[in-house]
Amino acid sequence: MAGMLSVVRGVWIAPLLFLSLAFDVSGESDQPIYTDSLQNGWQNWGWTSINYGNTTVVHSGALSISVTITNGWQAIYIAHAAFDSSPYASLKFWMNGGAAGGQQLQIQGHAGGVSQTAVALTPPVANTWTLYTVSLASIGVANRPDMDGFWIQGVNTSQPTFYLDDITLMAGSNAPPATNTPVAIFVDARLNRHPISLLIYGVAFAGSASQLSDLNCPVHRSGGNSETRYNWALNAHNHAADWYFESIDDGSATPAATADSFVATSKSGGAEPMLTIPMIGWAPKLGPNRGKLASYSIAKYGPQTGNDGQWMPDAGNGISSTNGNKPITWNDPNDANFATNSAFQRAFVEHLTNRLGFSTNGGVRYYLMDNEHSL
């Protein structure tokens, strides 16, 4: 490799850069996806309760994956940077139905950033490991230049805990023949250069303005599950499943104090703040003297599979331990929250513009409509 590569304010500069290499192209072999941990660049993008280090029910090795689906259509989603799937023919994995068995599940391919065909899986047997082999063609990702993952998803309702192990992408008839042909690749970094937007670089919830300044960070995001239920008027959050669905005082009783402090920290660190505007239609409320409130009181809704034993023992996790470990769906959402509307959130934005001015005059430029609500 000749020349040097550097970045100055988002512009790639390569006065004389090229890369020359030669290598053999050979046939693909099976690719492990999970063997005691995710392998070969595969990543956990699931949206349910998943433990990739389970030790209690294992097919081989020391660990397996436990999956508990608490709401309809949650899934274990194993993702990868887009790749050419043509050398592979099928997906092989072992599944155990756990103590209950009979889970209603489907597997779905993902390619080009879009979910593909869904295929129903035979319900796993209780306390038994069963081998599943699913062709890539059946889930719509065979011979794709942009396969980027797959998920195993609950159908319609919650599903009791099941286990996965030894997940492998199997080479097969789709694979091109091995050629062992030397290939030379030349990269001229001087071609098609263009500026990179500085706004693609950012962090969420930096600890201080100095950290933002040290990182030279252009944008600073207030994101995370609890931002879906921020009550700017009370200055409180409900922390959802991250912390037992508790509504908790942010410290200051000044309206929007947390948001105002976030904006001030961002500006002091030279970053543009990105504030989340809740859209869920509910906001947290507080008890007497700004006390915490539980969405799933154990005293009210009975024993649950987990609780905040350290700080608020009455706050449960919303999963009944006397009803087959199923979600509590009969609770009153007004226990720790109250219904809101767009007028309540409009007043939040008006508070910000009244205090800081419009975006053209130094106010907040970027608003996020809720926290990853499309998930």
- Structural category is mainly beta
**Helix content range:** 10-25%
The biggest beta sheet reads: 6 strands, antiparallel
Q: What is the tally of helical segments?
A: 4
Low-confidence stretches: 1-27
Kindly state the mean pLDDT as a whole number?
Answer: 89
| E-strand count | 27
Q: Overall 3D geometry?
A: flat
Give structural notes:
The protein has 375 residues and is mainly beta. Helix content is 10%, strand content 37%. It contains four helices and 27 strands. The strands form eight sheets. Strands 4, 6, 7, 9, 12 and 14 form a six-stranded antiparallel beta sheet that branches. Helix 1 (209-215) runs parallel beside helix 2. The chain is flat, with a radius of gyration of 25 Å.
Features:
mainly beta; flat; 4 helices; about 35% strand; six-stranded antiparallel beta sheet; about 375 residues; five-stranded antiparallel beta sheet; single chain
